[in-house]
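hiii so my PI (J.) wants the whole complex modelled not just the main chain, which honestly fair. so below is everything: two entries, each one labled with what it is. i double checked the lines twice but i was tired so who knows lol
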Amino acid sequence: MENIITWDVKYSVGIERIDLEHKIFLDLIKNFQKEIFENVSDERLFRLILEIEKYAEFHFISEENFMKLINYPKLEQHINLHFDLLEKLNVAKHSNVNKNDFLNFTVAWFVNHTIQEDKQIYNYCKENNIEINFKLDIVNE
Amino acid sequence: MNNILIIDDLEENLKVVEGILEESGYNTQIATSGKEGIKYCQNIDFDLFLIDVRMPELNGFETYQLIKQNSKNINIPALFFVAKTDYENIPKVFEQGGVDIISKPFQKNELLARVNSHLEIHKQRAQLMELNVTKDKFFSIIAHDLKNPFNVILAYSKELLKNHKKYDNEKREQLIKSVNNNANNAYKLLENLLTWSQSQNGVIKYLPNKIHLKILIFEIMFNLKEQADKKNIQVLDDISENELIYADGNMTAIVLRNLISNAIKFTANGGNIVISSEFQENSNFLEISVKDSGVGISKNKINDLFSIDKNTSTKGTENEKGTGLRLLLCKEFAERNGGKIWVESEVGKGSNFKFTVPIKNISNSKK
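here's the output for the full assembly
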């Protein structure tokens, strides 16, 4: 089984906490791929999709909280992108009988959103000399 | 079957929701914008709306407010699609009159359960409103129409008690006749009122049988003959000898008795009434018609005749009083027999009340 996606420095948005959450998200996707490969039950795959769904919600709120903290000017636009992503996730999970299609959707979803949108948050901080202090203590303990 | 309108700018989502609902036996209509949705609402009666909150141009809330401008849609439940993390709009759904949210992403069974619950609540709400209208009608009949004949009976009988010795025979007979007439009227009304209330309470059982139509009409006419003779009205029975129907005899008799009695009431002295029947082709129904040469009914009144919250009584050609209850009873029992009732009428030329009854055992009639 070839890994569908692995964390790479090119995915780093430069904000520690957000990168960490993205890593966990990729881990959930990788695990989903592994279990499809192992032919687990539909019920199990349904539970894993739920986990991805729930984590996406959690992660979006994290990102939005950070954007609010730094008065990110494109906050509203970015929040709307999150809503769009959730709508697309909904369509993907209901229309893809083939779970590999759902998997490919989540990967494309992650790559496009991170590279195109999340990196702009970092760029805004740099351009405006905003100190980025958004991390979880647990990582450094 | 329930009609559901789904409005969402995301076509893929429309397809997903449409698929889930159609699979469960719902009729759906999809619209890709608020404007398109509003257009459908003008021509189609829906039982439930599913509207996406975030849409370009008209958003979900604006769309719903415009849909509600048409009074027929005011009580139709609206559920809104909201992104799961859209915490600003979730409470707004309820402020805007929405009954529930469907979050995106949703679970299939959750969507179906919410749609089902709100359709059920909507149905029960409509039933409650109807029961309330029935109750109001009932009280209004008791308060006005039943009170009037008693007022006359009480006043005239008191007068007779006090002064009967003073009156000559002619005057006495006139007063006794008045008392008797009013007692008769009150009794007929009471009888209809009881029948109607029993049918509303579900006490009256539907017991279909093979019925010989000609004999049934003969029995009904036996009791109505006096009423017709008083106004020199000729009632012609044009039913063929062997016409058989399959229906509840009491219910059919109530429909016929009330229609004929109404025809007599609204036909002037010397007029005529024709009762006839015709087999409806390609169906299992016989169409029975009670046609009079009476005053007729204006177009704007026709629509309200069979509606409990709008129907009113009209006085007959000799000032005969009514309550509007008769036609409600006719509709109730024509429908419980599995048939329909309607009227064709022209002011000045007369009315033709028609209803259908099954000619053999059909299973779709209300039990």
